[in-house]
What we know:
9% helix, four-stranded antiparallel beta sheet, mainly beta, 27 strands
Amino acid sequence: MNANTTIAVIGVIAVVGVLGYKLGQRSHDGPPAATGTVQTGAMNPAPSPSAAVVDSHAGLPAAANAVSSTQPPLGHRFAQFKVGDSNVKALLADGPVVWVGTSGGVIRYDTEEDEHRLYDVRAGLLSNGIFHLSRLGDRLAVGTYGGGLSLFDEANNDWTNYNIQHGLGDGFVYDLLQMPNGDIWIATWSGANLIKGGHLDEGGAWTTFTVASTEGGLPNDWVYALAAGKNGEVWMATEGGLARYKEGDWQNWKHEDGLGAPYDLVREQIEFARDPAKESSHHARQKVEMGLEGVDIAYNPNYIVALYVDEAGIVWCGTWGGGLARFDGENWQYFTVADGLPANHVFMLESAGDGAIWVGTSNGMAHFDGQKFDVLTTKDGLYANNVFSLAQSEDGSLWVGSFGGVARLVGLREKFGRL
Length: 419
């Protein structure tokens, strides 16, 4: 990425940052942001654009005020981009293009052509709050907060939106998964949708699975993440445990089965003393349902925020205060701060491409090879220590989304090997 490219990304992300929406208005995003030390120069965001699609570099900040590019102790380089008072929950590296899900819509940034565009409700989205980004065939799939699922046909500059009236369980869409047979799964606030054959425009193809309709097979209606298993099964992360669906059969696991570290083990490790139950009736009810009445800090080991299934079929679960959990189909193992995990609130899990995984937490990001956690923080180039999203470009660089900004890390191959 050359200097002009870096400046362009910063400018367009700064534009949407001023729109400032709060991702936690309906859902519980996480503990208070651990902002750490941000290594970037001061930058004033550009005015909010009047057009739905932004192509101009007008108003971009000068290079001296826009980016900090330095050589941290690990030997890699980094650049940082501000997005304002919001979380970056979604990133997608799509060839030379990087898509950034922000509080003000979706940014398309072409790193080769040095071109950027902002898509928001004026362009066709039904909500500017973005939680999920992925490719669905030749269209961009965008999961939104309250606006349902939006699909973008870039070739024709056309948006198609799917919401409750089309069969979607809820307008809050957290994840999307397409299986090899064409089936599409969608994770929502109110259950999981299965669209047989991927026929989104056929009402009869839609099914919504809830706790009630599965007779408890799905342990909680808030489905937060999806992952394909090694043998055709679908794994689901929920606020009440892990679920597996295969050929019509459901099975689930909760803390009592081994999910997440015990409260007594992590109680002194959790830095967030705020009790979520005192802030919302949802979390107050949740504590009773899950037998957590005696817990007065941010801890719920049943709540899986991040989910990843590796090539061997091992299921990794990032929990809310219960650390990182590993499940081989029969036995559970957990990792906490005592094992080197940066924090016990795990927000992001992604493949590191070398048999290891990236773990984003409330206090830094770690490269975990199954034995050791190598931790990166703001001292190593992260914008903030709470890490919500990650995308890996073809050149091996990592884009890391946090509260308030994005960091691009270059040169980690030399540190961790193949990425």
